[in-house]
């Protein structure tokens, strides 16, 4: 009857202290995004194995937790490979399920559909510190909105949320896939080389301009093209005038509306933001996923080296799945990283210090117990946290323990002196 | 690239309307239970297959979604049976994971530990209407509290929640496993026969006193015993005096404190309840799980034939797993059934009718857009729901659609007339 006490490899038990912060954040996220008109939605954690293996998931498709067929469908003797044994898997992201959901339910959904998804995903990654095989993702997506109203609302909603969590001085870096392409085209790179060029460009913040130059040359690209390309990055600035500079320089290489739209996004967000952050145009921002088609963006925080969220426009993905072209744009926050940052800075949940403990005599007569329960009822109805506990022999130790749990007020009830 | 559009068999996509109610309930449950001092906790959805197969799960162990081993550990050629292929499974309840969690983390948890768990569980049941293979469970448990303070607080917390959801006129039926046993012993049944007797007794509400008599006799039990047993049920009333009657009649068959404790639970809850329901002593209440050791209870609602939740004391289960005897008591609400009932009676989420849509001209100049965004920012900061949408050609149809989503106020912004 002995039990394995530890959770399965790479997954974790969540203790009350972390859980309180998670609950607080989940409620705040839902409340905040709802004020922007987003609709909560949910898909099953288990997805068809065929959908998970549909090549949209990239490397994640290698990390699927697969689910064994059941009953007569499972034929162990005849099985030659994994796919003979399984019919489902745990989802590795919320994007594949969103596509399936939208294609299954579009008739019953608003148009445009502003979706909010929070849910666990699973990846059988090599376990490493701070990364788990089950983790929460939090995505907002606007499906069916072709204009930059989508980008503006997604960025405003996300940054408003971060502001409510007391995050300050962060940066939303923004770029557009079409600017990336136009800069490469203008410099003379062949379209077939774009992906390789962008992978090298993506290292700019680590290896700098000269590092990028060296790697591009090592890859065998013409020195003229490399020089022309890097000159653009030397001259461009991280703001609206940087966008304007590229618009003028790239000319016909850049579709006319791209620069104007990007400027409007930056300007609109800067002018109406409700948190303390800045928008930065970053022509070196690449973002890995090849499905992006327009503006792309990422949240950078000094407190945390990497990105704590990002997104962009992916106008072609849903149509590929559904056959129905549907413009789409999304923004995902790194929920687990945000929780980690809040835990590290001992984030205090508003109102969490107002917890009361009633310590009551073990032999409290039932008529007196009623009075105590009545008093607790009144306080709880007002939203106060009241924990009724049997008084222990070592009362001081008991209280010290409860203080570490956030109890600040104590009331003691003794059977012989308490009259109710 | 075509995708399977439907969710996997027996699981469902949750549409915004249901999701809004679920989100509301989840937040209300967490808020309400927290005022009673419960701590939110979470375990991974994936559990060791050994723990899931530990015989605590009863029939549910036949319904496990099992997870394929990965990498070198998976040896398809050598596999003879399922257990050679799998190392984990999706949890089928929250009780097995709670035991594991408590044994893994007891040192870092308060004592007693008041746990609140909400999470999905999975059972590969035969699909049927209204029952799904993925569903949410919602359990509160108090571990380490031997007194009836646990039972009282669990029932008060659960009923307070139901009251906040506008449920009325429901009944908490309560009994005690030791009363069940004492009634059988007093009547002359052998201990080895109790389980069979209780299974028949459990049908009382369906087949009545005479039906129970017939089935007991058919099972071959002595007529004397059956008559004596059923006489008890004829004379007992569904209140505290019923408990008193059994106390006096059963005498030494019933441990002394059992009846007094039950009376105190009923009286305390009746006196300090904050919802419109009644407590009923029900000596025919059995509850299936054999692990219960003391008081057991169930929520009955007229609106819904069956039980919409239940629980009881299980003082021996945790010790079996951990080796450390730990008194325990829990109450689980049928989350999915409650959501179903709320949907059926068109439950209106407080504040949900205060939704505003801004319909804006497709060609809104960016300086005017700023004014609109600024206005939305102010309203959203006050908690209002504001959805900014591009005005469609068929504006009437667009508005009618939005009205079905709960939008009651519309503001229209035209590029040529709007001055900001």
Descriptive account of the structure:
The structure is a homodimer of 420-residue chains. Chain A has helices at residues 16-35, 49-52, 82-85, 95-105, 149-164, 177-187, 194-201, 204-218, 223-235, 240-250, 256-272, 317-322, 335-344, 366-381, 395-404; strands spanning 39-40, 46-48, 66-68, 86-90, 113-122, 134-143, 170-176, 277-281, 295-301, 304-313, 328-333, 355-360, 385-390, 407-413. In chain A, 41% of the residues lie in helices and 21% in strands. Chain A is an alpha/beta fold and 420 residues long. In chain A, the strands form 3 sheets. An 8-stranded mixed beta sheet of chain A has the order 1-5-6-11-10-9-7-8. A 3-stranded antiparallel beta sheet of chain A has the order 2-4-3. In chain A, α6 crosses α9 (223-235) and α8 packs antiparallel against α9 (223-235). The longest helix of chain A is centred in the first third of the chain and has 20 residues, at 16-35. Chain A has 3 domains: 10-146 and 315-350, Bira Bifunctional Protein, Domain 2 (BirA Bifunctional Protein, domain 2); 169-290, Bira Bifunctional Protein, Domain 2 (BirA Bifunctional Protein, domain 2), CATH 3.30.930.10; 355-413, no CATH class. At the A-B interface, α1, β1, β2, β3 and β4 of A face α1, β1, β2, β3 and β4 of B. Chains A, B: InterPro entries: aa-tRNA-synth_II, aa-tRNA-synth_II/BPL/LPL, His-tRNA-ligase, HisRS-like_core, HisRS/HisZ. Chains A, B: Its EC number is 6.1.1.21. Chains A, B: It is an enzyme of class 6 (ligase).
Rg from alpha-carbon coordinates of chain A: 27 Å
Q: What is the CATH top level name of the largest domain in chain A?
A: Alpha Beta
Helix and strand run of chain A = HEEHEHEHEEHEHHHHHHEEEHEHEHEHE
| Arrangement of strands in the largest sheet of chain A | 1-5-6-11-10-9-7-8
Number of strand segments of chain A: 14
Gap from first CA to last CA of chain A: 47 Å
The stretches of 5 or more residues of chain A where confidence is low (pLDDT under 50) are none
Shape by Cα distribution of chain A? globular
Overall average residue pLDDT of chain A: 93
Helix content of chain A: 40-55%
Write out the CATH superfamily name of the largest domain in chain A.
Answer: Bira Bifunctional Protein, Domain 2
* Most extensive interface between two protein chains, with residue counts: A-B, 110 and 110 residues
**Number of H/I helices of chain A:** 15
Tally of discrete structural domains of chain A: 3
CATH topology of the largest domain in chain A: BirA Bifunctional Protein, domain 2
Structural class computed from helices and strand pairing of chain A: alpha/beta
User: Main sheet of chain A, how many strands, which sense, barrel?
Assistant: 8 strands, mixed
Q: Name the assembly state.
A: homodimer
CATH architecture identity of the largest domain in chain A:
2-Layer Sandwich
Instruction: Please report which band the strand proportion of chain A falls in: under 5%, 5-15%, 15-25%, 25-35%, 35-45% or over 45%.
Output: 15-25%
